[in-house]
Amino acid sequence: MKSPLNDKLAYEQAVKADAAFRIDSAIVEKKFALEYMRLQLEELPVPPDDASDEDKQAYAREKVKVDALEVEIERQEEYREFIRQKFNV
Known about the structure:
rod-shaped; 84% helix; 2 helices; single chain
């Protein structure tokens, strides 16, 4: 006969595992997006010093997007480690 306590523990463990899986999935998805953005950035020519401000700003915006996504991935990986340690998942 199943104990309600065992059911509750199993449910809690399943919720924790699901949370860890969702975090991992989000990280993988963002890593693919980051790689795609890097490839697009590589295709953009680096504007020379005498290029227009508009060209320089367009390149800088794309570079900032890549850098921001890298930071976001790092933070999510830190959060994933925190969740794994805290909940032993």
